[in-house]
Design goal:
Nucleotidyltransferase, domain 5, 6-stranded mixed beta sheet, two-stranded antiparallel ribbon, 8 strands
């Protein structure tokens, strides 16, 4: 809830009386081993309990506060926690991680690798720190070294069990093409004394956006307009009569995916949890005739601007937009185009409020750059955000009589 590190949280637990009160602890019991906290959280993540914690806590808060979910807004937010690597850095780091694991698992095999590769990719190597003019040549060397390492241990059962070896093979398939004949290194290359290999780097344009970006978090992908990391799909209630708005759904998706593909899974999840809205407000990324018609099939009206190619022509008098989207795909597309009217602008305006939620998650809960790796932590953070909002509301309600009395005394 306060975006604390483990040690900061344990310090608060031991020395802040508010924490003792919250957990019902006596002074002598207000302490915890960091390893216990780490292991417990690891178990929660290992068993996929993050979404369960979010769902059960949020359901209870919605019921306790009487939150209406008939209208909701949806947006996505990019987040990550890893060093952004260039292409050479990705090759070097992937081999360094493998060699480090190999040294711990089978030191004899590690020593047999050879001085050239060990020199270039061992723990103390700086081979990835190349000047711009040297980078392309070193990248070709790294690609050949990656192939040599993968081939060297491909029939070794002990090595093939290593996850780090699998990451090398994945990187090889995503970034390189296998040729019919080996190609020798150039005379000035750092691997000029090594055997030729049949490998060629793919053009950057041919490398898929869902390719590995770091060996330390293999699920991270790349989005051309948003960057590298994960994407969190966040849905939030937005009904004027609500005492406070809550995040109703959170899903972690690859950043390489499109927002358009995330709309229906969010609606289906909200439907399953019993919080399906009558209307969902989203930006153009979630729009389109297919999404509008499929949302209608679930009983949800999609309020979103039409895609660029569907904008109404200037000077054309479109009919007043119908309130509900038709389920037929073609009619749904026409319905989206007809929505570019002043009345639609008023209906769409509540969508802007979710930008404040994105900012809150970023500033208060560390959403801008996760302190730890893995998308599972997102569920802890959105749960904390909902709890904080509920507690703030209840605290203000409790203080209202006090404030009224103080105001009366001040008037007297």
């Amino acid at each position: 809830m306060h975006n604390l590190t483990d040690m900061e949280a344990l310090g608060e637990l031991e020395f802040d009386t508010r924490w003792w009160y919250a957990f019902g602890l006596e002074l002598d019991d207000a302490r915890l081993c960091q390893k216990t906290l780490h292991n417990f959280r690891g178990a929660v993540m290992r068993h996929g309990k993050g979404p369960v914690i979010f769902r059960k806590t949020t359901d209870a808060l919605i019921a306790a506060l009487g939150i209406a979910v008939t209208r909701q807004r949806l947006d996505s937010h990019i987040l990550s926690n890893f060093a952004v690597l260039n292409r050479l850095g990705l090759f070097c780091e992937t081999m360094r991680v493998f060699l480090h694991a190999l040294k711990k698992t089978a030191s004899g095999l590690y020593e047999s690798v050879g001085g050239g590769i060990l020199k270039r990719y061992s723990d103390d190597s700086r081979y990835h720190d190349a000047r711009r003019e040297e980078g392309r040549r070193r990248l070709a060397v790294a690609a050949r070294d990656l192939y040599r390492l993968a081939e060297r241990f491909k029939d070794n059962a002990t090595v093939e069990k290593l996850g780090e070896y699998g990451l090398m093979k994945r990187l090889l398939s995503e970034q390189c093409s296998i040729l019919s004949k080996p190609r020798p290194p150039e005379k000035d290359d750092d691997d000029r004394g090594d055997t030729p290999v049949p490998i060629k780097l793919k053009s950057p344009k041919k490398v898929r956006s869902d390719s590995m970006q770091t060996p330390h978090d293999p699920d991270v992908t790349y989005s051309g307009h948003k960057g590298k990391g994960y994407e969190a799909q966040i849905a939030e209630s937005c009904v004027e009569s609500n005492p406070v708005e809550l995040i109703t759904e959170a899903q972690v998706t690859p950043s390489s995916g499109s927002d358009s593909a995330a709309l229906l899974p969010v609606i289906e999840s909200l439907e399953k949890s019993g919080h399906k809205p009558e209307e969902i407000i989203a930006d153009t990324g979630y729009s389109g005739a297919e999404n509008a018609s499929e949302a209608t099939g679930h009983g949800v009206n999609l309020c979103a601007p039409a895609p660029a190619r569907g904008k109404p022509l200037p000077g054309v008098n479109y009919p007043a937009p119908a309130e509900k989207c038709p389920e037929n795909r073609k009619e749904a597309g026409e319905w989206l185009k007809s929505r570019a009217q002043p009345v639609f602008g008023k209906q769409y305006s509540p969508r802007a409020g979710i930008e404040g939620t994105n900012s809150e998650l970023k500033r208060r809960h560390g959403f801008g750059k996760l302190r730890v790796r893995g998308g599972e932590r997102v569920y802890f953070k959105v749960t904390a955000c909902n709890l904080k909002r509920a507690l703030n509301y209840w605290q203000l309600q409790r203080l209202k009589p006090v404030q009224a009395v103080e105001g009366a005394i001040a008037w007297v």
